[in-house]
Amino acid sequence: MRFTDPDWQWLDCIEVIEVEGDYEVQTGEVESLAIVLSGTFDILAGGGSWMARGVRTSPHDGKPVALFLPPKTRFALHNGRGGLLLVSSRQPEQPSDTTEATSEKPLLALAGSGKAFDPASGEWKRQEDFPSSPEAILPRRIELTQQGDTVTRHVAPYDYKALSLTVDECILPTDQHITVTAGSIAGYPTERAVYYDTQGTLTIGDTSFSGQGVAPAITPGMTIQANGGPAHLVFAGAGPK
């Protein structure tokens, strides 16, 4: 199940992927975040591996595990059964001079060291700290905020290394509502959408939704309410940081 919108400039797609056994793909000219909705998998991406990741039987049970994927990254899942949500966005244009080292394209250290030099800070950092490297995002790293009875998990917040993408997740309890906030950074995100999977109906602004889908244009001040059952929501924001 793949969702796109012709009005999106920065968001590329939001896709639900059902996996039984093995799954493999190479990302395109986009950066992506894969959230495990259910199941447990051995995850491989860009030379890294994370075994037996995923700790919930459904999006309503437990905390998310996610994986950040830079552009043109081979991504594979093995030995598992369940579902993923893949959120992708286009990155701002990068320097065309491939000899220039930047915080996005760092100078690598000796092979096998696992570290790279960041010319912006003058420090050696873990290679996975740069937006050019895949990285697993585990539950203990995910910050939480609360609005009423609804807890939002900031899987990839604004200050995460992604160059354009932010992703938040929450379970909206039955007959409860939340208000879309403006965010802490003026002018960001340029675009915002929400993936929903509701057990009842969902009211977003003046429109009613049911089942699974994506509302492609979410704006600050908009109210989202779950009616007759809880709703799993994933907010995707994109734009130059």
Task: Write a short abstract of this structure.
This protein is mainly beta and 241 residues long. It has no helices and 18 strands.
In words, what does this structure look like?
The relative contact order is 0.19. The two termini are 29 Å apart. It contains no helices and 18 strands. The model is unreliable at 97-101 (pLDDT under 50). The radius of gyration is 18 Å and the shape is globular. The strands form 3 sheets. Strands 11, 12, 13, 14, 15, 16, 17 and 18 form an 8-stranded antiparallel β-sheet that branches. The protein has 241 residues and is mainly beta.
Contiguous helical run count: 0
Shape: globular
For the biggest sheet, the summary is:
8 strands, antiparallel
The share of residues in helices is under 10%
List segments where confidence is low: pLDDT < 50 over at least 5 consecutive residues.
Answer: 97-101
Number of strands: 18
Class per helix and strand makeup = mainly beta
How much beta, percentage-wise?
A: over 45%
Distance between the termini: 29 Å
What order do the SSEs take from the amino end to the carboxyl end, as H and E?
A: EEEEEEEEEEEEEEEEEE
The mean pLDDT is 88
Oligomeric state of shown chains: single chain
